[in-house]
Write a structure and sequence with these properties.
five-stranded antiparallel beta sheet, seven-stranded antiparallel beta sheet, FAD-bd_oxidored_4_C, Uridine Diphospho-n-acetylenolpyruvylglucosamine Reductase, domain 3, Uridine Diphospho-n-acetylenolpyruvylglucosamine Reductase, domain 2, binds flavin-adenine dinucleotide, flavoprotein
């Protein structure tokens, strides 16, 4: 890409972007693709419980008194501290399937008592100080795309809770072109980050499926992983420095490259999920935007062969940008749903590889091809990978359309070592299948390897089944069964969705009682009154 003719001035503020609808993913309903009807007939043998959207939800009344609202308004501007129901309903929580099901309930919806939107670190600092003094819980709210209950309006033991909406902090604050470091306001969303960086011929390369709405502060607070993680690294690997506002004071972490000044305190805040403080400014490693991309796909005879091929390629150091393989069920369902992927059998693997030029990108595809062929893979050209890239942000909106038809679709993820991968996949699949079958709704359980590392990989499950008349109980028992299979099967309770409130009951099985104590001690030191996101990372009732 040619260098821009003039360097845009900093700080630079991005164009505003539409937010996701309050009760769905995205901004407009998705149409089910061709082939979905056949799939629905298989999934819904005559007992659909469709769930409609609620046009005018009833919200819990605000518990924030006039004095506190006035005080907060004085800190951020009257129009940026509000108890208005239309604003509060955009902050009811995240976007898991249970969240979307709850939004369709005619019952009163638990809402934050106010939404407060600071525009800078100093305003965040002032709001946190006020809430600490007044005993008001604070839920940092980035894009609100959490799928683990991370942005639920939980008051804990406090009288009121605010959603601290960080969208007004969106900006490119600083750019060090020499070191390739960009400092961004925490509320900058994925597309805004790329817009701001592309003006300088740069990219961050972080593309989670929630890219369109999630924020850079949220990526850091949840240790997000993007679809291009093989090429660019997980989000935590992209973070150079952080500025944090905690109830006890401010921190600036990540002064120099590769410091050995004791334990790396950035790691305390990467994955801190708003429970320790507010990440206000994030300095990330950026790269020149890619100049060439190669696309390729293969079909493996089975998942074991695909996993083994990905392991070998990764351990040999072959580094495409995106690399993933679906199991046979997911490959078949995608083929039935899409039409794009034709009638592929076996297990589909796709790859994209960025390079300095076409030959460089093609060389990565060629290196993978050589490894994959030895594992029985057949090449499938570039169309499946191009099709995946074109449609990759569109599929989550189908969840809403499927709920309309009485189909529950939800995802969950884990990671483990290559040694335990096959057994973990089998046990989680069995747990989901058994739990949902016990409800009389035999599911379709699909899985793909979404992120690969030399020592292991992540497993991403998608589950679809007919919805019962109590879909929250239905999914809760399946999720519990899967989570138990994960923690007893050498998996992590989360590879990238984070802990939130939903995974908290399973965290101690992973980090042990001492690990839980360490987290509690850090929380007590930084947030002695427990105002920060009560119930996330540390149980609210144990403080
Ligand atoms: C359809 C869909 C697809 C998804 N795909 C992916 C994926 O591919 N990869 C992936 O990693 N995740 C994915 N997620 C999960 C989610 O998008 C990520 O967790 C994302 O990082 C959250 O960003 P956010 O800005 O929306 O954060 P929010 O949902 O607003 O917040 C998430 C957590 O971080 C805290 N938080 C947010 N901002 C700050 C801040 N500035 N300071 C301190 N704490 C903060 C919140 O309090 C909360 O605990 C997906 C979610 C959905 C709904």
């Amino acid at each position: 890409m040619a260098a821009p003719s003039s360097t845009p001035a900093l700080p630079a503020v991005p164009a505003p972007r539409p937010r996701s609808d309050w009760d769905a993913w995205g901004t407009r309903p998705a149409t089910l693709p061709a082939g979905a009807k056949t799939l629905l007939a298989t999934l819904l043998p005559g007992r659909a419980h469709p769930l409609s959207r609620v046009p005018a939800p009833r919200l819990s009344p605000s518990q924030l008194d006039d004095t506190d609202l006035d005080d907060l308004a004085a800190l951020v501007g009257a129009e940026h501290a509000t108890r208005d129901d239309v604003v509060r309903r955009r902050h009811l929580g995240g976007k898991s399937t249970p969240d979307l099901i709850r939004r369709r309930s005619p019952d009163v919806q638990a809402a934050p008592d106010a939404v407060v939107s600071p525009a800078s670190h100093d305003e965040v600092r002032a709001v946190v100080d006020h809430c600490d003094r007044a005993g008001i819980a604070v839920v940092p709210f980035g894009g609100g795309t959490s799928v683990v209950g991370g942005v639920d309006p939980d008051r804990g033991s406090h009288a009121a809770v605010i959603a601290l909406d960080l969208s007004r902090t969106a900006a490119l604050l600083d750019l060090d072109r020499t070191s390739l470091l960009a400092t961004l306001g925490a509320g900058t969303t994925g597309p805004q980050v790329e817009e701001l960086l592309s003006a300088h011929g740069l990219t961050l390369g972080h593309f989670p499926q929630s890219f369109e709405f999630a924020s850079i502060g949220g990526f850091a607070a949840t240790r997000s992983s993007g679809q291009a993680s093989r090429g660019y690294g997980r989000f935590d690997e992209l973070v150079h420095a952080l500025r944090v506002a905690t109830p006890r004071g401010d921190l600036r972490l990540g002064r120099a490259q590769a410091g050995a000044a004791g334990p790396d305190l950035r790691e305390l805040f990467l994955g801190s999920e708003g429970a320790l403080g507010v990440l206000t400014e994030i300095t990330v490693r950026v790269r020149p935007a890619p100049t060439a991309t190669a696309y390729a796909a293969w079909s493996f005879p089975d998942f074991a062969a695909g996993a083994e091929a990905l392991r070998e390629a990764t351990q040999r150091g072959i580094r495409p940008t995106v690399l993933r393989v679906s199991d046979t069920t997911e490959t078949r369902v995608n083929a039935a749903m899409g039409g794009h992927l034709g009638r592929l059998g076996g297990c589909l693997a796709i790859m994209t590889a960025e390079g300095a030029d076409d030959a460089d990108a093609a060389a990565t595809a060629g290196a993978l091809d050589a490894v994959f062929a030895a594992h029985g893979a057949k090449t499938r050209g570039d169309a499946p990978a191009r099709s995946w890239e074109r449609t990759r942000f569109a599929s989550p909106a189908l969840r809403d359309t499927l709920l309309d038809s009485g189909v529950l679709v939800e995802t969950l993820e884990t990671a483990t070592t290559w040694t335990h991968l096959a057994a973990l996949k089998a046990s989680v699949t069995a747990a989901l299948t058994d739990a949902l079958t016990a409800h009389g709704t035999k599911p379709v359980v699909m899985c793909h390897i979404s992120h690969v590392y030399p020592a292991g990989a992540s497993l991403y499950f998608t589950v679809a089944c007919a919805m019962t008349s109590d879909p929250l109980a239905q999914w809760s028992s399946a999720k519990d069964a899967a989570s138990r299979a994960i923690v007893t099967g050498a998996g992590t309770i989360t590879h990238h969705h984070a802990v939130g409130r939903d995974h908290l009951p399973y965290l101690e099985a992973e980090i042990g009682p001492l690990g839980t104590d360490v987290l509690r001690a850090v929380k007590e030191r930084l947030d002695p009154r427990g105002i920060m996101n009560p119930g996330v990372l540390v149980p609210a009732d144990r403080r």
